[in-house]
Amino acid sequence: MAVSLLSILFLGGIPVALSQNATVPSTTAVSASLTSSGSASFVTNVDLSVDDLWDLYVGPVATFSINTTVEPTPIPSSSLIPPPTLYYPPFPTGQQVPLQSKNESWKFPKDFWYGVAGAAYQIEGAVKAEGRGPSIWDVLTHRVVNYVTTNETGDIADNNYYQYKEDIARLAALGIKTYSFSLSWSRIQPFGSGAVNEQALKHYDDVIDTCLEYGVTPQVTLYHWDLPLVLQNTYGGWLGDQIADDFAAYAEIVFNRFASKVHYWFTVNEPIVFCGFYPLPENYFKKTSTPPKQQPYVCGHNVLLAHAKAYHIAKSVNSSLSVSFKTNGGYKIQRTDSSADAEAVQRAWDFQEGWFANPTFINGDYPSTLKTYLSTFLPDFTEEQKKSINGTSDIFAHDAYTSDFIMAPDSGIEACTSNSSHSLYPQCYNTTKLYANNYWAIGPAGDPGTPWLNKATDWVPAFLHYMQDTWKPKGGIAITEFGISEPYEALRKDLASILIDPIRSSYYRDYLEAILIAMSEGVNVVGTLAWSIYDNLEWSSGYSIKFGIQYVNMTTQERYFKASAFEYVNMFNVYQEK
Ligand SMILES: *[C@@H]1O[C@H](CO)[C@@H](O)[C@H](O)[C@H]1NC(C)=O
Ligand SMILES: *[C@@H]1O[C@H](CO)[C@@H](O)[C@H](O)[C@H]1NC(C)=O
Ligand SMILES: *[C@@H]1O[C@H](CO)[C@@H](O)[C@H](O)[C@H]1NC(C)=O
Ligand SMILES: *[C@@H]1O[C@H](CO)[C@@H](O)[C@H](O)[C@H]1NC(C)=O
Ligand SMILES: *[C@@H]1O[C@H](CO)[C@@H](O)[C@H](O)[C@H]1NC(C)=O
Ligand SMILES: *[C@@H]1O[C@H](CO)[C@@H](O)[C@H](O)[C@H]1NC(C)=O
Ligand SMILES: *[C@@H]1O[C@H](CO)[C@@H](O)[C@H](O)[C@H]1NC(C)=O
Ligand SMILES: *[C@@H]1O[C@H](CO)[C@@H](O)[C@H](O)[C@H]1NC(C)=O
Ligand SMILES: *[C@@H]1O[C@H](CO)[C@@H](O)[C@H](O)[C@H]1NC(C)=O
Questions:
Q1: 270 an active-site residue?
Q2: Given this model, what pLDDT does residue 45 score?
């Protein structure tokens, strides 16, 4: 049965329609209508429970020995002693005494929020516990050969599902004031729509209450890439326009339950990235007829509509909530002063930040360069849709890790925009980390596993000015993820060498100084979230890329503060008004 169903679903290329049966998730039957589109068409019905979904699409998962919610272990005071000073005056003075004096022109206002972020699939583990349904990431990590370079999964991750009390207590002990996390949609709705899993809501209730108990402000993201598998296999996930209503229904469940305790909300995380995952690997999910290059933009279109619905639902529940899109990008530096490079820079803004920020902040519609391309295969937004999308981000919540030099393609822009086979089509701009001398990089490199990421904090003030001037966010700008992969950190095997992370430490210090500079010049920055609370599953890089300000021993699930954790908090100790 399992085998024949699999062969129908994956090899036959037959459209699959799964619709949930709204009863208790762990025993719910799913009615699956399998309809062939060929001449020998047939219809059959198969009942699938949550367990069946796991068995059919994912297979066995790993579990950890701590598998019930645990009370926090006391945090040893020795682990709260800051590291020895990492900084020395610039070469060549050679003085061994730090000269870091406070700049009296800088300050973070009292209500500036600073915290750390994590995301459900990357940290929770306990993937099958308490009724969670599979997400596309359970399939990508378990079934798709070499999708994750290390063959690792999120089955256990940081075991946050059971150890969150300790995790929150540790943040409070360090002096971190805000914790931003995402909800697992397929925990709350194992089939992505319909049936609601009360155990999952109870769990997140307690995560939120634990934050409040420790004086840590919870911030919640509804969607951080872990799409319920059933939605992907029913209508192609974000490629299907049904997603807007399903996302809205999920958002409504969440807002109704948690709006009274959580003020800051993010609807979707980094749509450029998760829409860029389309096309998904072939043969593991429902087939789609949308051409591969168009898929990210069809996804983006549905994301905007879904986001707008969720925004308006939140506002109808409580109009005071802060609800925003969470986008990503970086500053775009024109590599030479040629007009072609200037045009390339504009294309880069349009295809990255502008893709989602123009519709939500400016006019409900795409930037013109993007629209020229999209209108060849997507319907224009109706006036009503534009109206519902415009103005639906209360703050500019941006994940801004780095910057890039931008230049025209070697062929020129026109030869690219007119040629859909061009390697840079449809964006038609090129990027590099090297200055025009082709010798020096923009800044110190992160880990080789993240070639997109160099420290480029010098450009942060210009970037913040650009965001404020271009998109004019009413509620200001928040840097909702920033951080760096300490080079070769995964190769370090002894604790003492892991815990001192100088590149990450200087990144946080210099980035926050850059924010202070921009703020002293009138840019309204309202908060920052360091990525990440601790080392976690870095998606297709597995655990080999480290972004944590805490180290986690994956054998024991013990947590340890790294030097960067102290550097981060220290900047606020020094500069935030009491
Ligand atoms: C849901 O499943 C149960 C048990 O299989 C069945 O009795 C019931 O009729 C189904 N409900 C719907 C609406 O399909
Ligand atoms: C929970 O972990 C214990 C060991 O600590 C193990 O004996 C038990 O089987 C686990 N339970 C589940 C449901 O994984
Ligand atoms: C991952 O698994 C595939 C298939 O079993 C194997 O070919 C590959 O070598 C594995 N990669 C690593 C890093 O273990
Ligand atoms: C609405 O949200 C605001 C801001 O988060 C909060 O102060 C207020 O208590 C909320 N109102 C209700 C009825 O929950
Ligand atoms: C979009 O909303 C902004 C305010 O949020 C407003 O200034 C602008 O006129 C609106 N644009 C359109 C096309 O409705
Ligand atoms: C993009 O830039 C790199 C150099 O940074 C160059 O090697 C490559 O040929 C360029 N690609 C195109 C398509 O212009
Ligand atoms: C379009 O781009 C492809 C890939 O770079 C190239 O082989 C082809 O010659 C280009 N076609 C034209 C008309 O320039
Ligand atoms: C992680 O824990 C294991 C088991 O106690 C231990 O052998 C290993 O040395 C620890 N790793 C580090 C880096 O401390
Ligand atoms: C202090 O901050 C101001 C405003 O950002 C800046 O102009 C000045 O150079 C800074 N002074 C030092 C010593 O860094």
A1: yes
A2: 53
Query: 122-178, pLDDT tens digit by residue?
Result: 999 999 999 999 999 999 999 999 999 999 999 999 999 999 999 999 999 999 999
Among 491, 498, 553, 559, which residue has the most ligand 8 atoms within 8 Å of its CB, making it the best to mutate? Answer: 553
Phi and psi at 152, nearest 5°, equal -95, 160
In a domain, 93, yes or no: no
Indicate which CATH number applies to the domain containing 120.
3.20.20.80
CB 29 near ligand 1, within 6 Å = yes
Ligand 2, atom 13, lies closest to the CA of 67
Q: pTM above the 0.70 mark?
A: yes
Range of the domain at 209: 5-87+104-575
Candidates 270, 343, 489, 567; catalytic one: 270
Q: How far is CA 107 from the centre of its chain?
A: 28
* Closest ligand relative to 106 C-alpha: 9
Per-residue model confidence (pLDDT) at position 481? 98
Q: Determine the residue of 19, 20, 21 to mutate for testing ligand 1's pocket, defined as the one with the most ligand atoms within 8 A of the Cβ atom.
A: 21
Number of domains forming the structure of the chain: 1
Model confidence over 98-123: pLDDT tens digits?
455 789 999 999 999 999 999 999 99
Amino acid letter, residue 294: Q
DSSP letters along 442-476, please? SS-B--TT-TT-B--GGGHHHHHHHHHHHH--TT-
In a domain, 92, yes or no: no
Residue 94 lies in a domain: no
Q: Whose CA is nearest to atom 4 of ligand 1?
A: 29
Q: Over the chain, what is the mean pLDDT? A: 91
The 10 Å Cβ neighbour count of residue 206 is 14
Instruction: Give the atom of ligand 9 at the shortest distance from the alpha carbon of 101.
Output: 13
- Report the candidate in 43, 29, 1 with the shortest Cα–Cα distance to residue 191: 29
Who has greater pLDDT, 79 or 477? 477
Please say if the pLDDT value at position 85 is more than 60. yes
Would 239 be classed as within a structural domain? yes
